[in-house]
């Protein structure tokens, strides 16, 4: 690849954008994420929900605390997935000028649509009021605070007049990417994953739990792509990654952890099934340190992972029972390697 081609295919402010000229590949990692996404393909209707329906309708089948945890996580994720899809389709894609990165983002946008369909499927299966579920971001303060925080952090992306020309604008773009990929998808989502997959581990709401397990697999790839995108932009524009910007990034991540802690306390006021708000908060702190490490920033919390089994869930080795539900899993999900 000569110098002019190299400039033409950079992530931001490319000298020319030809969406049909994906070859030669400049960023192989973006191409690999696209292939992983295709290998992971799934749709919610593949997952049986009959046991969940029976348990949900059974008198005394679930406690009020258990029902609240399910409802709150459905409520948060249903709108958060729409928010992330809007950011990709309306904003990030427009500014990222590299074709292989754009190719992955098209795949991610499709996956966000599948995730939104998942919550529609859950509402239909369990007989839930969709207006109630999809408006919980307005009715529950701790959910609204998280959504409002991300919307505020990513407002540059939604400004139709915003460009990535110049260091200050590149810094604003990075700030928003961190809010979207690292905080929304990398921190806010993971407390919900811990709650819902803990529930599944106790053999309750298996269908909903499996839906969340598939979503977690997708989101772990979204996060990895997002961090590589951020770090590559930083490597190509090193002047923007100064001490002041690093400090702002750390403060935003700390604020995200505080908001997630508030949500965990509201969602799990008394604890259920051995799951408490304290352990969820510790997990969020542990996750936040991992996100800081990926951004080449120092850890803050230095806590151990209270849910080591979640690492195995994310890895999704093909010999796990998770892949024994349908033959197609060996042809698709089993291709993912970490």
Kindly report how far apart the N and C termini lie.
29 Å
Q: Tell me the helix content.
A: 55-70%
Shape: globular
Q: In this structure, how is the largest beta sheet organized? A: none
Number of domains: 1
Give the beta-strand count.
0
Describe this protein's structure:
This protein is an all-alpha fold and 338 residues long. The chain has one domain: Orthogonal Bundle (Ribonucleotide Reductase, subunit A). Helices cover 66% and strands 0% of the residues. The protein is built from 13 helices and no strands. The longest helix is centred in the middle third of the chain and has 35 residues, at 167-201. The chain is globular, with a radius of gyration of 20 Å. The two termini are 29 Å apart. The model is unreliable at 1-5 and 316-338 (pLDDT under 50).
Strands, helices and their partners?
Elements: H1 3-8, H2 28-39, H3 50-57, H4 64-95, H5 99-126, H6 130-134, H7 136-139, H8 141-153, H9 167-201, H10 206-236, H11 243-267, H12 277-294, H13 309-315
Helix pairs in contact: 2-5, 2-10, 4-5, 4-9, 5-10, 8-9, 8-11, 9-10, 9-11, 9-12, 11-12
What's a quick, concise take on this entry?
The chain is mainly α and 338 residues long. Helices cover 66% and strands 0% of the residues.
Features:
Ribonucleotide Reductase, subunit A; disordered C terminus; 0% strand; mainly alpha; 338 residues; disordered N terminus; globular
């Amino acid at each position: 690849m000569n110098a002019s081609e190299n400039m033409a295919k950079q992530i931001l402010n490319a000298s020319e954008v030809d969406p049909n000229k994906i070859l030669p590949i400049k960023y192989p990692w973006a191409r690999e994420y696209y292939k992983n996404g295709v290998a992971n393909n799934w749709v919610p209707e593949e997952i049986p929900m009959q046991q969940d329906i029976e348990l949900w309708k059974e008198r005394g089948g679930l406690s009020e605390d258990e029902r609240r945890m399910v409802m709150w996580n459905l409520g948060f994720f249903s709108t958060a997935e729409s928010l992330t899809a809007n950011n990709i389709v309306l904003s990030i894609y427009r500014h990222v000028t590299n074709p292989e990165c754009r190719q992955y983002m098209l795949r991610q946008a499709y996956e966000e649509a599948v995730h939104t369909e998942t919550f529609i499927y859950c509402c239909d299966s369990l007989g839930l009021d969709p207006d109630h579920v999809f408006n919980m971001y307005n009715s529950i303060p701790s959910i609204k605070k998280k959504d409002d925080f991300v919307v505020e952090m990513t407002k540059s992306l939604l400004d139709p007049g915003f460009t990535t020309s110049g260091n200050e604008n590149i810094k604003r773009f990075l700030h928003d990417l961190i809010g979207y990929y690292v905080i929304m998808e990398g921190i806010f989502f993971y407390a919900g994953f811990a709650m819902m997959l803990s529930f599944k581990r106790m053999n309750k709401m298996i269908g909903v739990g499996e839906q969340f397990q598939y979503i977690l697999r997708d989101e772990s790839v979204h996060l990895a792509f997002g961090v590589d995108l951020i770090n590559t932009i930083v490597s190509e524009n090193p002047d923007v990654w100064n001490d002041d910007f690093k400090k702002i990034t750390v403060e935003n991540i700390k604020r995200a952890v505080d908001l997630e802690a508030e949500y965990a306390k509201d969602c799990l006021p008394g604890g259920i099934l051995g799951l408490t708000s304290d352990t969820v908060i510790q997990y969020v702190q542990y996750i936040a340190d991992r996100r800081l490490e990926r951004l080449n920033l120092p850890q803050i919390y230095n806590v151990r992972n209270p849910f080591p089994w979640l690492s195995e869930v994310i890895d999704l080795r093909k010999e796990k029972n998770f892949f024994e539900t349908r033959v197609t899993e060996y042809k698709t999900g089993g291709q993912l390697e970490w």
